[in-house]
Structures are given as C-alpha cells and as structure tokens.
C-alpha cells in the first residue's frame, strides 16, 4: 500500500475533526457579548429540576449537593466582618456580613479570582460582578456556620446574560430568606415585613408585585434607579431561574487541577472544573412557560456531548491511521533495504 492513501485518510480525518470543531466554536467566535461560552457551560451543567429539588431544608441536604467541606482559611476566619456578637440571630449576622461587603461604591468590574482574593478586591475597591459577591457570601456563610445556597436566572435561554444571588436559612424562622448583596437589597412582605424566600419573591414578581418591599442594605447601594426598574429587571428573568447544586467555592479553589488551569485563564479553569466535577451543576426551575427553553438547553447539551464523543472517536481513528501509515512506511523501508542488498 502506498503512502498517498494513508495521507489522504489522515487528511480526511483531520478535516472532519476541524469541521466539527468549527461548528461548535463558531457561535462563540461570533458572539460579541461573551455569553455563548457560558451558555455552553450551563448546558453541560444543567438538569431539569423537580419539586423536591427546591423545597428542602438544611436538616436534609440533598445527598448529591456539593456542600462546602474545606477547612476555613485563617485569613477568612479573621476577617473583620465575621467578628460578631455571639447573641445575634442568623439573619442579623447575615445582614452584618452583607453590609461589610458593601462598604465601598460599587464599580461592577468582574473579578473572577479565587474566593479570598475576590473578598479582598471587593473590600478594597468595590469591584465585582454578582457572581463574585455570591461566591464570597457562600464562603462567609460557611465560615459563620450559616446555611446558604445560590440562585441564578438568565434572560437568554439559560445562557450567560443574567444574575445570581444568595438565599440563607433562617433557623429561628425555619425558612429560606433571599438576599441580593450585589444589588444591595433583600425582599420583604410589604404588609408583615417578613423576609421572602427566593421562590416566594419570584411568585410575587409574577402575581402580586405590589406586595414586595425592596429593603435596601445601605443607602446609595441599591443597584437600580428605583423599585420599578428593579421589578422590570427581575420580572424579565422570571422564566429562567435555576438553583446551583453546590455552595463550595473554597473546595473549588483548592482543587489542584482547577488551580493549575487557572494560571492560563478563566476558560481553561472552567473546563478543568467541568472535567473534574469540581464545578457544581444546577437544577432548572421548570414551568409551563419555559418548557421550550428547557428543552432547547437539553438539545444543546446532547449536541455538545455528541460532538465531544465524535471528536474522541475521530481522534481514535486518526491514531489508528497514523500507526498504520508508520507500519506501512517501515515495511516499504525494509523492502527497499532488501532490494538494495539483492542488487
């Protein structure tokens, strides 16, 4: 067998791999807002949520929920915001933590660094996106022994354009209570003053927005011009809510593979988080109004996993072709050597 057919097969396989890679990557290259990578990531992390996925309490954490377990770093233990009077209840302690994070005017630049470094930057400069604040509050809640979980919503089909916030378990009230540190508020019932859970807040956004009291954490830190603008913002994302299935940023930071990949940028870090399982998944809140969007996420997930499987198969074929070409080349060289000896 001649060399040319082998090279043709190798070239054909490489071409097929390149075309498939371009089909996957092209939407990312054409994305001017940088949200398509997050859409891909989210599709791989997403699962359809069931009713029981959202109404559990810390008395029965889901078995597969990625709870924080890493040792609390000494620098975090000594952080001034955690030095609180011992007689305060959980909600009062949470408000003190939130206010300690909002001492400077908000700049809004993404930090995307390890948790401790993110905390230092927030406190020093007021920078950070919502994901930076929720990550830090997850870690602070763990350090303060306050159960916490994280919700998100999006405006673009569970993609990268959206928002994220926290929910803490109020032991005294025996209920979850939502708090949005980045936007500087927490929702309360306008009549009773009782704090609302995330799902109660969402329900009222859609059914009785006048019953929501947008309680500010600090003067001048509210992320909107007024309540009406906040209401429009949150209502626009009400059909794409999801609950992160983990609250372990310290464990994520301490993952050796993730830490190594982070040296090369945020994308390699997140790929490492996906491949190692260090990055938690999330449960989509499925409703009649978002069934088509949820189905689209499932199709994208199937496409990405299918493309990855095909690429692996093509890579295996490529290796086999290269080995076959090498074997053929050695046979031809051996034959040439024999012919030269005979002559």
Which stretches are low in confidence, meaning pLDDT under 50 for 5 or more residues running?
none
Task: Domain count, please report it.
Answer: 2
Our measurement of the CA-to-CA distance between the termini, rounded to an integer number of angstroms, reads 23 Å
Total of DSSP H or I helical runs spanning 4+ residues: 12
Q: How large a portion of the residues is in β-strands, by DSSP E? A: 5-15%
Whole-number radius of gyration? 26 Å
Question: How would you sum up the major sheet?
Answer: 6 strands, mixed
Classify the oligomer.
single chain
So what's the overall shape? elongated
Q: What strand order characterises the main sheet?
A: 1-8-7-2-3-4
Helix content: 40-55%
Order of helices and strands: HHEHHHHEEEEHEHEHHHEH
Q: Structural class, from helix and strand content? A: alpha+beta
**What is the mean predicted local confidence, pLDDT?**
93
The counted number of beta strands is 8
């Amino acid at each position: 067998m001649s060399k040319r057919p082998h090279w043709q097969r190798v070239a054909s396989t490489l071409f097929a791999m390149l075309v498939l890679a371009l089909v996957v990557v092209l939407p990312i290259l054409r994305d001017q807002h940088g949200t398509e990578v997050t859409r891909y990531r989210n599709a791989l992390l997403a699962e359809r949520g069931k009713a029981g996925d959202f109404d559990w309490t810390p008395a029965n954490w889901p078995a597969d929920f990625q709870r924080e377990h890493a040792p609390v770093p000494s620098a975090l233990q000594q952080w001034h915001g955690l030095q609180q009077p011992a007689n305060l209840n959980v909600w009062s302690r949470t408000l003190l933590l939130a206010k300690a994070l909002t001492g400077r005017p908000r700049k809004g630049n993404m930090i995307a660094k390890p948790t401790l470094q993110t905390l230092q930057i927030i406190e020093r400069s007021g920078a950070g996106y919502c994901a930076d604040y929720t990550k830090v509050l997850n870690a602070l809640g763990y350090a303060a022994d306050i159960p916490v979980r994280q919700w998100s919503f999006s405006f673009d089909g569970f993609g990268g354009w959206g928002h994220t916030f926290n929910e803490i378990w109020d032991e005294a009230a025996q209920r979850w209570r939502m708090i949005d540190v980045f936007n500087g508020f927490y929702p309360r019932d306008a009549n009773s003053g009782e704090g609302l859970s995330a799902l109660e807040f969402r329900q009222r956004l859609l059914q009785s927005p006048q019953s929501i009291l947008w309680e500010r954490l600090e003067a001048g830190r509210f992320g909107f011009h007024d309540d009406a603008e906040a209401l429009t913002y949150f209502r626009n994302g009400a059909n794409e809510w999801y609950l992160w299935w983990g609250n372990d940023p310290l464990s994520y930071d301490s993952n050796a593979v993730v830490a190594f990949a982070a040296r090369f940028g945020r994308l390699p870090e997140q790929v490492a988080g996906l491949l190692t399982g260090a990055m938690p998944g999330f449960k989509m809140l499925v409703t009649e109004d978002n069934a088509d969007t949820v189905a689209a996420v499932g199709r994208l997930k199937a496409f990405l996993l299918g493309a990855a499987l095909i690429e692996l198969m093509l890579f295996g074929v490529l290796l086999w072709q290269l080995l076959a070409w090498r074997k053929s080349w050695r046979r031809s060289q051996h034959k040439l050597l024999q012919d030269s000896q005979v002559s």
